[in-house]
């Protein structure tokens, strides 16, 4: 990977999304595998120390996001119950953090600022129940701790609402078989009041990361070095 700003961005932006595993409606597992592949192919640090997994949701599980491939609309807007992306800390010599969103029609990856502008659209006036919140988890912690037995993708009689991936369900290192709900449950009471050094320290130690509002997202990553 080159250290030139423009070369790095053009190289990253040309990544072929098809080389990454993607199962529709299993975004948390897609990002889990994405982080692992970014580590093994040298795009990210070996242990994923420059990667952050970001869960987007709110208390009502209704979050509008634009430029989503699953949308039937021309502007790509869709109302997700939650969505998961990966943010990569900017490398030395580059000028932007990068967002890896396998479900987006934007360049893959996209600079954080343009992703926020195009996908989150903070300037777009929304009713309060549609405000987006972001649970930011350091990828090395996520890769050790995340587990899902996919129970959330079954209906009341046990049928799949969407076909699961063919590989085995993800189990955490400590043997936990399902903790997805703890990542996607959002309470506005848990949203941080201020973004500062203490918060940055917390994201590197807390199993379920830190919770920020959409107005704090870019500020948070501006402090990540």
TrEMBL record:
<comment type="subunit">
    <text>Monomer.</text>
</comment>
<dbReference type="GO" id="GO:0005634">
    <property type="term" value="C:nucleus"/>
</dbReference>
<dbReference type="GO" id="GO:0005829">
    <property type="term" value="C:cytosol"/>
</dbReference>
<dbReference type="GO" id="GO:0070773">
    <property type="term" value="F:protein-N-terminal glutamine amidohydrolase activity"/>
</dbReference>
<protein>
    <recommendedName>
        <fullName>Protein N-terminal glutamine amidohydrolase</fullName>
        <ecNumber>3.5.1.122</ecNumber>
    </recommendedName>
</protein>
<dbReference type="InterPro" id="IPR023128">
    <property type="entry name" value="Prot_N_Gln_amidohydro_ab_roll"/>
</dbReference>
<dbReference type="GO" id="GO:0008418">
    <property type="term" value="F:protein-N-terminal asparagine amidohydrolase activity"/>
</dbReference>
<comment type="function">
    <text>Mediates the side-chain deamidation of N-terminal glutamine residues to glutamate, an important step in N-end rule pathway of protein degradation. Conversion of the resulting N-terminal glutamine to glutamate renders the protein susceptible to arginylation, polyubiquitination and degradation as specified by the N-end rule. Does not act on substrates with internal or C-terminal glutamine and does not act on non-glutamine residues in any position.</text>
</comment>
<dbReference type="Pfam" id="PF09764">
    <property type="entry name" value="Nt_Gln_amidase"/>
</dbReference>
<dbReference type="InterPro" id="IPR039733">
    <property type="entry name" value="NTAQ1"/>
</dbReference>
<keyword id="KW-0378">Hydrolase</keyword>
<feature type="domain" description="Protein N-terminal glutamine amidohydrolase alpha beta roll">
    <location>
        <begin position="22"/>
        <end position="221"/>
    </location>
</feature>
<dbReference type="InterPro" id="IPR037132">
    <property type="entry name" value="N_Gln_amidohydro_ab_roll_sf"/>
</dbReference>
<comment type="similarity">
    <text>Belongs to the NTAQ1 family.</text>
</comment>
């Amino acid at each position: 990977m080159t250290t030139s700003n423009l070369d790095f961005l053009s190289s990253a932006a040309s990544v072929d999304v098809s080389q990454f595993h993607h199962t529709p409606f299993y975004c948390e597992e897609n990002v889990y595998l994405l982080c692992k592949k970014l580590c093994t192919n040298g795009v990210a640090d070996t242990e994923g120390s420059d990667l952050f997994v970001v869960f987007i949701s709110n208390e009502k599980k209704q979050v509008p996001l634009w430029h989503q491939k699953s949308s039937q609309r021309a502007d790509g807007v869709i109302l997700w119950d939650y969505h998961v992306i990966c943010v990569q800390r900017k490398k030395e010599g580059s000028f932007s953090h990068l967002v890896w969103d396998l479900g987006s029609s934007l360049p893959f990856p996209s600079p954080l600022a343009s992703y926020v502008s195009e996908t989150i659209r903070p300037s777009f006036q929304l009713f309060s129940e549609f405000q987006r919140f972001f649970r930011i988890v350091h990828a090395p912690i996520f890769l050790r701790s995340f587990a899902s037995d996919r129970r959330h993708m079954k209906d009341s009689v046990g049928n799949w609402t969407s076909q699961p991936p063919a590989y085995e369900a993800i189990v955490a290192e400590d043997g936990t078989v399902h903790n997805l709900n703890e990542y996607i449950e959002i309470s506005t009471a848990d949203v941080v009041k201020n973004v500062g050094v203490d918060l940055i320290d917390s994201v590197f130690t807390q199993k379920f990361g830190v919770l920020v509002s959409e107005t704090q997202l870019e500020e948070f990553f501006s402090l990540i070095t």
